[in-house]
Design a protein that fits this description.
By secondary structure, the protein is of the alpha/beta class. It has 9 helices and 12 strands.
Amino acid sequence: MSRVFAATEVIGHRGAGRGVVDGARENSPESYAAAAAAGADWVEVDVRRTADDALVLHHDAALADGRAIVDLTAGECAAAGLTGLDEGLAAIPAGVGLDVDVKSVMEDAVDAPSRRTASLLLPYLRREARRRRVFVCSFDPGVLVAVRGGAPEVPTAWMPFVRNPLDQAVAGAAGLGCAIVAVDARSFGLTGDAPRPGRRSVPYTVDLAHRAGLEVVSWCPDPVDAARFAEAGMDAVVVDDVPGAVSALKAREGGERAGY
C-alpha cells in the first residue's frame, strides 16, 4: 500500500483549530479556507448525520441548546448555523488533503444500513478520493470496517479514545487493518500529564507502528510537541495552532539542513 503522508504533515483541527480562531468558527468554510491559507497540508472535518439523512459538519453530538444533531433536519441545522458537507468540501482548496472524522450515532446500530452515517458518507469519499488525498478516522471501529468495504481506496485511521493506552492503540489499529493509528498527544505524556510506569516513548511507539505497517498521527500537540513528534518520525499532526505548527516544523527542517 502506498503511503498516506510525506514527511511530517500538518492537519488543521476542525479547520483552523477548535472554537473560534481569528473570527473563523470551527467546522466552517471560513475555518477550512484559513487553515489552508496558513499552510496546512490537510484539513480535518467532523461529519454527522441529520434526521433526514443529510450530512453536516459539527463536532459535538448536540447544539449548545441541547438539541441532538441526529434529531434535527438539515434545514434546522442550517438555521442553527451549521455547514453542510458539500459546502464545507467546496471551501477546501485543491491540493489540500481531507481528513474525515466520522461521528457515528447510537441510531446507526438499529437504522437501515443505507441510513447509517458511514453509508451516507461513502459516495462523498469515493468522489473526493478521485481528486485529492483523503483518509477517514473514527472512534467507531464499525465505521472503519464499513469504509474498507465500501471505499477500499480510502485509508482508515483508528482513534481509540482520549488518552488511549498506546499498547491498545497500535495493536488495535493493526488488527483492524487500518493504514494509520491516531493517538491523543496526551497519551505520550508530553503536554502536562505525569508519565506513567511502562509508558513507551514517542520514538519507540512510532518505530514499532511503522514496523507494523502503520503510519502515525497525533492530535492535538502544541507546536513544541509537534516538532518533537516530527523528530521522532511521526507522519502527521492534527493541530489547533496551524501557523505555529507549520513554523515549528519549518524551523526544525531548517535546523536539519544547517546541520544542527
